[in-house]
Amino acid sequence: MAVVGAGPAGLAAAIEAQKRGLNVLLVDMNLKAGGQLIKQIHKFFGSHEHRAGTRGIDIARDLYEEAVSSGVEVWLDAAVYAIYPGPVLEIARGILATRTASKEMVHASRVVLATGASENAVSFPGWTLPGVMGAGAAQTMINVERVLPGKRVLMVGSGNVGLIVTYQLLQAGAEVVAIVEVAPKIGGYGVHSAKVRRAGVPILTSYTVLRAFGDRQVEGAEIVAYDEHHNPIEETRQFLDVDTICIAAGLKPYAKLAALAGCELIYSPVLGGWMPVHDENMHTSVPGIYVAGDLAGVEEASTALEEGRLAGLSAAESLGKGGPDAADEKESIRERLSMLRIGPFGKARADAKSEVIKVGEKICRAG
Amino acid sequence: MIQALASTAERDKEGDESGMRVTEHPILGGLTPGRVVQIVVDGKKIEAREGETIAAALLAAGIRVNRYTSKRHEPRGLFCGIGQCTDCVMVVNGVPNVRTCVTPVASGMVIETQHGSGGRAESDEEV
Fold first, then answer.
1. Neighbours of A172 (CB within 10 A)
2. Disulfide engineering: A258 pairs with which of A24, A130, A263, A298, CB 3.0-4.6 Å?
3. Closest Cα of chain B to A131: distance in Å?
């Protein structure tokens, strides 16, 4: 079995399948395994099974060690750029480390795609200036590279990413001048917005960024409030002295490889946009290809872990290696997934996911 | 050329004194010393930390413009940080279009601001 993407979903899928007797190859185009967990320095919350109280960076290290010690073969700096019927994966190895690549063709009985998500952009005059960047890019700089992307930041978007990265920018020593949120309400969890507010960062709802100023890089931003008809309120227009504008406008499933593989896609606004249709075993419309994690709908790292386990287990089961406890184990994974989809935020995701699976039960034949 | 000269002057001013390194951190602790390597950016030597990406080394040195676009010669810098958007590509050891946000530095690496697609003809074109 081949797993594409060594974030929480891919690592969990690889571990689960390897433990059930498959030979697993896990490939990731980055130099480090762990996906976006490697920059999550905050403690996760939730239940004990979901590593509540543990920081993402530690979960990434533990999962990677477990994968390697259970016998998973890991190729880092390996970019899958084509999938042919078979499935056969065409992989370029060594681009980042050597700036040249060797090509590998890998034939796999089963493939789990766990390619994650990418950030949405917001365009406004000046958005291409150096200093305007994704909140995720800023987070990588401060928490992985230990370099500030700028000193005075405007954060655009108050979802969990916007709130968490704001707090982490403060921890790293930057100043966050404000968070603007185009919606009338804060997007993320109260626990995150409370921390940010306690630290003195104003969260301006019904506000948006109008433009970025600067000749060669960001030297300022203009923001404005909107009325209930989405018209700008002129007297609220103000200039902010910032050198950086971070965009935290949500994530979308990174579905390029799945589309290339021929997986049927479905549009789910709640889950981030276009994503591969899958059934309750995470199997797609292409025989032998499974999906898990943010690619299968943008949720959280804990959800990605459970979906990865489910995909790995289902793939093993389809090859006769599920073991005697496969059905029970799948049921308990699905129960834990339901527990992760409660509350006002979770309910919407649970409903959206059911819709996807309903379509999936019709077009995704068991692998 | 005017843009290139302005950028060099600004770099000299900022130098290594830009204070962009996160040396102390409440969760991650102090920055471990690590090995320092020399790289050359547009003819100027700067210090980088072994293992960090080119984009990080440049930001730490106060350099935010990685390239200029082909037609309108607009500046571009780090945007996605995951090797997908190509805004941060530069000419590295003579090879254009290297994604600096995911490519690690190496001792003696020669890095140049990329103009257009990084071909010779375009680099020499009057801006």
1. 24
2. A263
3. 7
